[in-house]
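Continuing the batch. This is chain 6 of the set; chains 1 through 5 are on the previous pages. Same settings as before, nothing changed between runs. Recording input and output for traceability.
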Amino acid sequence: MKKIKVLVIDDSTVIRNIVKEVLSTDDEIEVIGEAKDPFVARDLIKELVPDVLTLDVEMPKMDGITFLRNLMRLRPMPVIMLSTLTTKGADITLEALELGAIDFIAKPSFEELIANKSTFRESLISKIKQSVLVDQKNYQLSNAIQVTKSDYKTLVFSGVKRSNHLVAIGASTGGTEAIKEVIKLLPENAPPIVIVQHIPETFSMRFAERMNTICDVTVQEARHGQKIKPGNVYVAPGNQHLKVVAKGGSLFCTLEDSALVNRHKPAVDVLFNSLEPIAGNVQAVLLTGMGQDGSKGMLTLKNSGARTLIQDQASSLIWGMPGSAHALDAHTGQASLKNVAKEILTYAGLNRDDMVEALNES
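Output for chain 6:
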């Protein structure tokens, strides 16, 4: 079997050695070189032709974003970012994902590595193996880091016609960009949306804040006990599960610091399972992502009367989560990413009788 060739780019000798040591334990991966800065990396890419890069977000001589932008313009390839768990690291990483990086992994401190080396190893190896399966046509190769509201038009919506209607979205790898593509098209009178994206602390708040600058809906990180209102989007905080509870005719966010589910916290299945009591008023949506999180919860919701929608394979960066739901027949429909927002609004704007009448007339 041909090995996956990896080039490690990081200004820290310690981190480069850690990454090399971790990857050397897998027979399907070969570290073919290392670079301490982007200029060395540029020459090694030409010489060694790697399949995947691991890239530090903050480096001397040329920052990771500038290097990535040039790389994606001239020679696009899978890139896994090594990110610091800081606000600055979060912003740089989110920009990198906008430019076409496949995924990211938190850069461990020495103490964290001692305590969680197996977790870091499994995560990095899994992300590298998944990255080479990504179809290059699904990369986002835009050179624009910031999207503004003038770059697109929101959809027209007559209003929600379902009582306490709620949209729940789950995503993982590729999800920050996929979610943005959906949410930015929604008008300010859209139904409320709760989101679980596999993302660490600090990143979730910055992700919500960045989306809020380009959206007509109000995007925020969810708070415990927060009332859910139309025109608002609630993003699960990193390292906390998000549930929804119904009280007195209203819906509320509930945060829970409990065990990992499907190796994640927040987990999509936790959110979806919490919605079973109100399934008849729910749209559950699974977007691009690695693994199976959300598929079983989606099946439960479908069987309880929810509308369940998955992103199709052609438009998914990685068709893991939606593909797993598809395999379970947990979906009532699927759509290309560009059409997900329209699908959400169309369903929210019609009651069941209207849906039947509209289908009969079409």
